[in-house]
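Both lines are retained for reference:
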Amino acid sequence: MSVNKEIKRITTETIRSMKGAEKISMLTSYDFTIAQMVDAGGIDAILVGDSASNVMAGHETTLPITLDQMIYHAQSVVRAVKRALVIVDLPFGTYQSDPQRALDSAVRIMKESGAHAVKLEGGLEVEKSIKKILNAGIPVMGHLGLTPQSIYQFGTYKVRAKEEEEAAKLMDDAHLLDSLGVFSLVMEKIPAALAQKVTENVSIPTIGIGAGPHCDGQVLVVHDMLGMTHEFKPKFLRQYLNLYDDITDAVKRYVEDVKNVNFPNESEQY
């Protein structure tokens, strides 16, 4: 069996080594087909995000998705990926209050999906859970700023840490996560100047979403970037395609061809 020598598996150490040397690219994926294309496109890391709750299941928030559902999505992605690092979100309720439950949840994800790391939201509030997971040898990616699992506490998806007190807490949490040993940190919807300050003051790579250009990398939800979620257009999003319109148009043409008996034609039958 021949091996493609150009395929080099990205690891957590690869991601760490990219800080200050090369920008990190990350996108979400939730299924085999899209993950295969994202990986082939040369992405560094794939996040199996709990945003699957929104874009795959149609929920208003990320809260309803279960651990079993996250494992299912992660299994589908891992089967497709040859190069990228695969990180999986621990869903709401599986790690916040009980470090042992956090470890059990992370172990299930790693054993049952074959993913390479887990991600969880928060700083000081989840310190014990992070320690427990890391002590078991499971890599952890942090997440600060807008933390969607806390949406009912925040009450809004607006930019976080604009005020001095919250900015100071975010900086403290970033230092804490760095000292605990997480391998990287996502920062969501915070002022670009704060994101730059954090990036310059922690040893781990930062990956931004709506956090400006100074982070060590960037992440977007793949359905947003491809223009499939056509009604979601926040300021930080750059759409590289408009698949909603393209796919809708293709379906309309298919329906028309079927109705008019233009499909299948002579060459499309046996």
Summary: The chain has two domains: 12-239, 242-270.
